[in-house]
Amino acid sequence: MRRRSRWSPFEILFWLAALLPFILFPTYLPLASQIAIAALFAISVDLILGYAGIVTLGHAMFFGLGAYFAGVISVRGWGEPISGLLMAGLFAGVIGYIVSFLITRVQHLALIMVTLGLGFLTYELANALPWLTGGTDGLRGIRTWPIFGQFKFDLWGYTGYAYALAVLFLCFLLSRRLVNSSFGLALRGIRENVKRMPAIGADHKGHLRLIYAISASIAGLAGALMAQTTNTVALDSLSFERSADVVVMLILGGTGRLYGAILGTIIFLVARDQLAGINPQYWYFGIGILLMVVVLFMPKGILGFLARIVERRK
User: What is the pTM of this model?
Assistant: First the structure.
């Protein structure tokens, strides 16, 4: 675990490269901020899917709850971004912990159906409360105050990207420390064989509840970031498509690898941006081909494939 906790030169270069859009691609800063937000959401799902083995198709529930919480308190008059972000993450985490008692009762196909059903219920609940959420029209009137009272969210996306990148980096540090701890080792044991963990004295359900709540909280932070940087919350923040897209990102990058979540997000969103420019109606066709290639020839994701090549050369 100590070896895993050490920072490699490639990691340092990766995070330094994340600053390049400010200099080389300033016109793509809004896209870069959306990539940072989606990467944070992907990390939250990877914590439960890649490390704990909890398969979910409804994690957009927590993304949307965080987005609506941050949006609603802003509409009601509190637009301070950092406190709003923390409150949204806490709210999503509490809901996640409550839901985790249901999640830990089922496995396999039933688990997928439960998470899917919860996602649909939350979506329809938001749709049925237009006085609170705006319904199909989305939540309007969000006004995010300048960060620390100094840095306004500009039209070109400089502040938005810096804010999203900072939150992504801090949550990545937390997640990295978590998965490289004894708790993270226990999660891997639960993922590999949940029936054997009680035999060595591990509280597997307690571990799963805790990681699910942490994952929900991080997803809520991602949703709140979206609301604060775009000043709008659409109903699709709770949609099944958002939950499915983040699973595709993880498959592309590789599950059980935090950098895989980030890499998969970059590939997915850049590919979507370019393919939508070519054909706005059928861009999913290109994503489908890319996904099939990765699944057939790189079953552990692109990052897993690259790691295997590096290991063979040693």
Answer: 0.94
